[in-house]
Design goal:
It contains 6 helices and no strands. The chain is mainly alpha-helical. It has a single domain (7-59, 74-162), classed as Ferritin, core subunit, four-helix bundle (Ferritin), CATH 1.20.1260.
Length: 163
């Protein structure tokens, strides 16, 4: 059965992914006993919250008559997004957060965060391919660049603490 996503549904997926990521990092921050780790996790949570707000605004800007338009006519992007969503590690996945305790080292958390950011980039590349330019493709590209920046920052931080 073919999956088709409307513009509204695409943005809803993005909003939910960012909301889940915010909750995951925030929950981990509250769980972690090391205050410096908790502080760094709260920064990650805020970055995800900022992305959620961008997608909420983009969704609001969709003209009412275009909300249910489907742009993935060959179904390739939908299949791609579904495969990313079904993957074991997805940014903000409740399963990932549930497995975490306060025992993980900051190094372990950074490695996980890098993997999650990579998955987020793959997800947003799929969304970018489904969103027409007039609905904010440039904003999705900006978020992809920000996610890439997160990987760079996280990797630098990982090198700092790894020695």
């Amino acid at each position: 059965m073919a999956m088709k996503f409307s513009a509204d549904e695409i943005f809803e997926m993005a909003i939910q992914a960012e909301s889940n990521a915010y909750k995951m990092y925030n929950d981990l921050a509250e769980k972690h006993k090391d205050l410096s780790v908790s502080s760094e996790l709260k920064k990650l949570a805020q970055m995800e919250k900022d992305h959620e707000e961008i997608f909420i605004e983009m969704r609001r800007e969709i003209p009412e008559d275009m909300r249910n338009a489907v742009y993935d006519t060959d179904n390739q992007a939908a299949l791609y997004l579904q495969s990313i969503a079904d993957s074991e590690i997805a940014e903000g996945s409740p399963e990932v957060a549930a497995r975490m305790t306060d025992a993980e080292s900051f190094e372990d958390i950074l490695k996980l965060a890098i993997d999650l950011e990579k998955g987020a980039i793959l997800f947003y590349l799929g969304i970018r391919d489904m969103v027409p330019a007039r609905f904010g493709k440039d904003k999705i590209e900006k978020i992809i660049r920000e996610e890439q920046g997160h990987i760079i920052s996280l990797s630098k931080r990982l090198k700092e603490i790894s020695g």
